[in-house]
What we know:
Blueprint: H1 5-8, H2 19-81, E1 103-109, E2 114-117, E3 131-137, E4 140-149, E5 152-159, H3 160-208, H4 225-275, H5 279-308, E6 319-322, H6 323-339, E7 344-349, E8 353-356, H7 358-375, E9 381-389, E10 392-399, H8 430-440, E11 444-449, E12 456-463
Parallel strand pairs: 7-9
Antiparallel strand pairs: 1-2, 1-5, 3-4, 4-5, 6-8, 9-10, 10-12, 11-12
EC number: 2.7.13.3
Membrane topology: Multi-pass membrane protein
Catalytic activity: ATP + protein L-histidine = ADP + protein N-phospho-L-histidine
Amino acid sequence: MRDSPSARLLPLPPGSWDGTTREFAMTSIRRKLLLTLLGALLAAGFTTAAATFFSAQAEFNEFLDTHLKETAESLGESVRNSAFPINPSPHMTIVGDAESYQIVIQVYDSATNSVWHREGSPSLPLPEGPGFGLEQVDGKSWRTYAVAAGPLIITVGQDTAVRTNLAATAAFRVLQPLCLLLPFIAIAVWIVVGEGLAPLERTARSVARRSPTSLTPISTKGLPSELLGLVSAINQLLERLEQSLSAQQRFASDAAHELRTPLTALKLQVQLAQRAKTPEAREKCFVRLNEGINRATRLVQQLLTLARLDPDASKKPMSTLRLEAIAQSVTEDMQPIAAQKNITVEARTEPAHLDGMEDAVRLMVANLTDNAIRYTPEGGRIEIRTHSEGDRSVIEVCDNGPGINPEERQRVFDRFYRALGTKTSGTGLGLAIVKRIVDIHHGRITIEDGLEGRGTTFRIDFPTLGASSPDNA
């Protein structure tokens, strides 16, 4: 049983290929190109024919006017040189009077007030004077030329429609070859357009056959340059999509793994509090439970912050920032926290500018400073520095803590990674967030030795202006 029209309009399952839709799309493109090209050819042909018509009409007018004049003057000269008065004969033949020109000759004798013209030819009005004229006879326009020969007035006339027909014939001869070739041109265009669209058809079939999870690049082998740009753009989009999906999958996996531990610890603390036999033991469990909740809350906040730093964050609006002002602000915010460990936090700043997102840059500096406070022992010192180096703006967070081993300096930016041997609690996400913010602003981050030859310095340099531009990446 044949499918009904409504059945053919149902959406296709992923990966299927509707041949009817494909053929309709191909035909539509072919038809549009075919009609456009044929229309352009016809327009050019008719324009050329019109130009030929007016040009030929002007040339025929000039030529036939000359012919009328020569015919009339030749007859007049013959009459003047004749020893006898002219006695026209009904069978008189004029040399040069071509039948296709349809010339009418009329002779008026003023002495006898009589008019002679060929039988069946129209009677032309008497001219007002010698020379060219335009007369209306029986609703038709006639071009005339008159000359006087003694008592005779010789008038030679021609229907202007003859001239128009001659010019139209010339124009048609120009247009005729194009009209004859038009079907062959249409067939050739149909075939050529079909061949040209074949790579598009093959590419469409290749995409339609893919599974929804396939993000491998589309083959560009044998594609024309017009289609190559589109397929390359799609491949770039697939690459970015694959990176985004991989990042989301990795993030979800890591987040689930990291949340499992603090949630399990919270559950155990609740169970211990329920089984506690003395108020002191129960209070101790509640203190540990509160600490666990704070750690879990911090982890969730860090995860949300990292999730908000999406791959397209660099395309968000940027503003010109003063890094020295941000460094001073973060220093003031962190001093009360550092004072709990008797750590000194100072800002040593010089003017430095950056095009970026203020909240993200402030979070970056705050994370680095908080990281330094947590790892620097009591009585330590932390400095936040800003300055410019050529066309780069630099911000540094330095401490005199235990430092980071050179072999671990690249890994500390990985999510949930914590250096071996550290006794300080943390989520392992702070430096990952810092690295993401640096990448968004197309900066560079390096780890060097800290204050007094020990500890750690996180050095970040950005393009002074236009940090959001991909050209600066």
